[in-house]
Design brief:
By secondary structure, the chain is α+β, with helices and mostly antiparallel strands. It has 2 domains: about 10-170, Peptide deformylase (Peptide Deformylase); about 175-270. The chain is about 45% helix and about 20% strand. It contains 7 helices and 5 strands, in the order H-E-E-E-E-E-H-H-H-H-H-H. It has a 5-stranded antiparallel β-sheet. Helix 5 packs antiparallel against helix 6 (about 205-235), helix 5 (about 175-195) runs parallel beside helix 7 (about 245-270) and helix 6 runs antiparallel to helix 7. The radius of gyration is 26 Å and the shape is elongated.
């Protein structure tokens, strides 16, 4: 059955695909759907994730035969070169990235048997690497350096493919960094206060530092609460930016609050 191909800005393509573990009916259905879709859209290659199947499977048309590569891995790659490629995900906008002319790889065939293969055809090697990228949460843009990526985004925006500015795609600087920057400075001085007894500091001075800790601890918590709410707002504005999403933001919060708790507890016991 022909499936719908995912195009930017559909970010459901940006996930790590899981390995194919069963090669029975569900696998055969997925493979048939991929081949039907390739024929319908006249494609020479397709990764399963491009039509919504989150599995490590790609199909490449080789000499009129549709060859399936499940759980593919590159073992060696040689002869690097700059490859100008077009990706259906970005509606065939050419982007130049680094690729390799020859590959040695392993994969599971349609029966689940492990095979090894050497690809020394330059065009096939490029196609294989591009489709492999999709299986590991990577697109052509992710292989560019920051300046090249920004230029590519602007060019794509000019064609109406991407947002009209790089800020809509992913901000180069986030104001939420102000929250973490201040929190990190407070945590640094909390750590310093714990080290002061090692230098023979007077009790009066130590008491002053520990008073600072009493205020720094809740201040860090308040900063992280502010960070979270601003990050939530930002995540709605920049949906294509993975660093803006909830999981990352919670991780930033938890680490700093946990460290503040440890330092405050240690300060309390030392003062006692």
């Amino acid at each position: 059955m022909v499936q719908t191909i995912k195009y930017y800005p559909d970010t459901s393509i940006n996930i790590n695909a899981g390995p194919v573990r069963s090669f029975k009916d569900s696998y055969k259905t997925m493979l048939a759907d991929m081949i039907d879709t390739m024929k319908e859209y006249e494609l020479n290659a397709l990764s399963a994730i491009q039509i919504g199947y989150p599995y490590q499977l790609m199909v490449i048309k080789e000499d009129e035969k549709y060859c399936a590569y499940a759980n593919p891995r590159i073992i060696t790659q040689t002869k690097p070169f700059d490859s100008t490629e077009e990706s259906i995900y970005f509606k065939n906008h050419p982007i130049t990235v680094k690729r390799y002319e020859t590959l040695s790889l392993i994969y599971d065939d349609e029966n689940g048997e492990m095979k090894n293969k050497k690809i020394d055809d330059k065009e096939t090697a490029v196609i294989f690497q591009r489709k492999l990228d999709y299986l590991f949460n990577t697109t052509l843009l992710d292989r560019l350096n920051p300046n090249q990526k920004e230029q590519a985004i602007k060019a794509l925006a000019g064609k109406g493919i991407m947002p009209s500015s790089t800020e809509e795609y992913c901000p180069t600087f986030s104001k939420k960094e102000y929250f973490t920057s201040v929190a990190d400075k407070l945590l640094f001085f909390m750590l310093i206060s714990l080290l002061l007894p090692l230098f023979g500091i007077s009790k009066e001075t130590l008491s002053s530092w520990y008073t600072y800790d009493k205020f720094a601890f809740p201040a860090v918590i308040l900063l992280m609460i502010g960070f979270f709410f601003y990050a939530q707002y930002e995540a709605k504005q920049f949906k294509q930016c993975t660093s803006c999403q909830v999981g990352n933001n919670i991780g930033v919060m938890v680490k700093r609050i946990a460290l503040a708790l440890v330092l405050a507890t240690a300060s309390y016991f030392i003062l006692s």
